[in-house]
């Protein structure tokens, strides 16, 4: 590998990871990077065709891990519940191809199965300093451990499977500094929605983001995963947080984390994974955590987000004609009128889950709001844990009972209604309070209207039947 670190000045975390993984540099500015970890899921299945067509086999199966998530049913764990031929084919093809290649697979029926971005961290497969790829845009999630993690396309999957390397152009490096204490009822999800509302869906285009500051330092590992997960919604290539004691405590003892003497050596090395004082960033954005309120989206991109105590904005007040038109279209799709108080908007469905907010702390936060309350009349509310292990943990804590008693459906792990590729959909015209990451037109089903928010806010919406300020419910106890 090329090691030109010696005579450098202060380096960023990205420089450090990049330099350690660069095998070759090409004149056009692309570098060949060694890839430590490759995740595959049921949508990746066709990539194996690329290999077969060229007579190739996966080069490093032990660095590759698979899970079935996008196409799996969430009302049952039985393969016979997949009554859609295309979905069944995708799951079966992945299972077969992974099996033949000697790739470990967390399939349907495996207690560790779940959404790829929940499973990787949970199993200790995503570690500081690694390069991590997956044919999925939300691979940015794994950057929360201080790894360089990003989504790749189908052809690139073939390249990584065959060579365990990938040609990449180094992104620019942007720092998002978040300082101060989060107010009561405000979570990592609100922070990242506030950031995207601030910089826009293309705000980090061409950049990898390093998140830093006292707010990030105080966040749990799960909160950090939520923030890195949504980096892609700001157009960022990757989101990274320097590893610290919180990171090490989360990883210690996980099945694939180093053990014993290896653990000690690894932690000693990981402590060097941070941007050096004086390292230069191409951009910096600063956010004041104490000024952030619980957020909800009202439009059809994650940028269309406002504090819950606000109103549906008026396109007439938009800065540009283009934005005015986009807002007008979004409000028409969402069935909302400018000036309506967000808290007056009635909802039909609630989805608590996804790789953004389907982890145990998310379910605990939602259950704390739901406890002793009932799902509002006419609302259909679901909890879809991010993995089988999250589901089991929640059951061990009795959270499933809190949800079921309140009238929620308690489902099995998968992507489910985040993208609806498994058939879990929101009906046309219905409005869904969702803890997922994208509120695009038709994302949760044709004509479905998505409002993004935190798990606690989604729980508040479930029990009131409207978009609601969770802080008020918390005050009542
Ligand atoms: C299906 C997959 C390729 C896609 C992604 O890239 O993110 C999906 O996970 C999503 O969230 O839209
Ligand atoms: S939960 Fe949603 S965002 Fe995450 S991988 Fe699945 S479909 Fe994509």
Task: Outline the fold blueprint.
Layout: H1 13-21, E1 22-25, E2 30-34, E3 37-41, H2 47-53, E4 64-67, H3 85-101, E5 104-106, H4 116-122, E6 131-134, E7 148-151, H5 154-163, E8 165-169, E9 172-179, H6 188-199, E10 207-212, H7 214-218, H8 221-229, E11 238-240, H9 245-251, H10 260-270, E12 283-288, E13 295-297, E14 305-307, H11 321-334, E15 349-352, H12 354-357, H13 360-370, E16 380-383, H14 388-396, H15 399-406, E17 409-410, E18 431-434, E19 449-452, H16 455-464, H17 470-476
Parallel strand pairs: 3-4, 3-6, 4-5, 6-7, 9-10, 9-12, 10-11, 15-16, 15-18, 16-17, 18-19
Antiparallel strand pairs: 1-2, 2-8, 13-14
Helix pairs in contact: 2-5, 6-8, 13-15, 13-16
Bound molecules: 3-isopropylmalic acid and iron/sulfur cluster (SF4).
